[in-house]
Amino acid sequence: MSEDSDSLARAEEAELAARRETLGQAADRVTSALADADERVIESALRPKRLTEFTGQARVREQLSLILQSALRRGRPPDHLLLSGPPGLGKTTIAMIVAAELGAPMRITSGPAIERSGDLAAVLSTLSEGEVIFIDEIHRLARPAEEMLYLAMEDFRVDVVIGKGPGATAIPLEIAPFTLVGATTRAGLLPAPLRDRFGFTAHLDFYAPDELEHIIRRSAGLLGVTLTDEGAAELSTRSRGTPRIANRLLRRVRDYAEVRADGVVTREIARIALELYEVDEHGLDRLDRGVLDALVRRFGGGPVGLSTLAVALGEEAETVEVVAEPFLVRCGLLARTPRGRVATAAGWAHLGLDPPPALAELPTLFD
Questions:
Q1: Active site residue: 91, 107, 252, 289, which one?
Q2: Which of 150, 175, 297, 315 is deepest in the core (most CB within 10 A)?
Q3: Residue-wise pLDDT tens digits, 205-237
Q4: Which among 92, 242, 319, 344 is annotated as catalytic?
Q5: What is the pLDDT of residues 322-346, one digit of tens each?
Q6: Would the pTM of this model clear 0.90, i.e. be above it?
Q7: Does the active-site annotation cover 136?
Q8: CA–CA gap between residue 206 and residue 244 (Å, rounded)
């Protein structure tokens, strides 16, 4: 298990470094769904170990239960599994649960870590029969490694090429039957030939507040945090539907409760602590509110182009588009139109302002 933890840490560090390079320090926000280096040890302790312990994603759990039970009865590895969805929803946890339910060892790596086909061949050639290999951010595999994976997934064989040019020789290498669990946050970037080779594909959705409450209470018990039901409810509504964020907010509120209160996380303590961390009642943080505020107060609610909005905030356009916009759109506070970004009536109301009368007639794609 220590080897698996080290592999997971390296894989997550590679992914986090790549995202920080793209998005600046946006990954360091308290409401970021990415795990930082200090969280990995804590997350490992909080992860459920069995499918029956996993909260939420009821349809995915039921489907996985059938696949795993059928494989155990046949005595053969199950089909390859693809898990997609935003970060922080439990893709890595489910992969570990799959290995635990099968009673099989697990190998962990990530797409950015496999730069050449030889790297993948070295991993696959050392797999034992029935072993589970987890590849995080599988859509970022290098093209040569991706093509090698096609043959390995279908025929459990890889062709190792020795030499170059006309004298090159391909040596077929048989590998033990295995189960690949791939995870991706951007399923649309996954090549169709690779996606079609997975026998089961699951998309993880954001969690409901009651599911997050259950997760928060379970984590509080494991961390030794005294938490009231009202405090758990307050945290769940500000967690953006993401367990990783819920657990992070729980730890931050615990710190506040231990230092400035009696150590009990109540609704009032949670509200005061999260106000200190600039997380409002809907889970919006400073960057989210900055986007909404600039759109409403500086540009009259829009429409305004992405680059103009980013310049007004002093942020990169990709940071605004990838980090802030998805949650604002999901909350119904911001809309994307052919002419640019527009604040909705709910967005105006969130800032305590009255929306203009014409806002009810937003342009559509066909206007």
A1: 91
A2: 315
A3: 989 999 999 999 999 998 888 899 999 999 999
A4: 92
A5: 777 888 888 888 888 888 888 888 8
A6: no
A7: yes
A8: 11
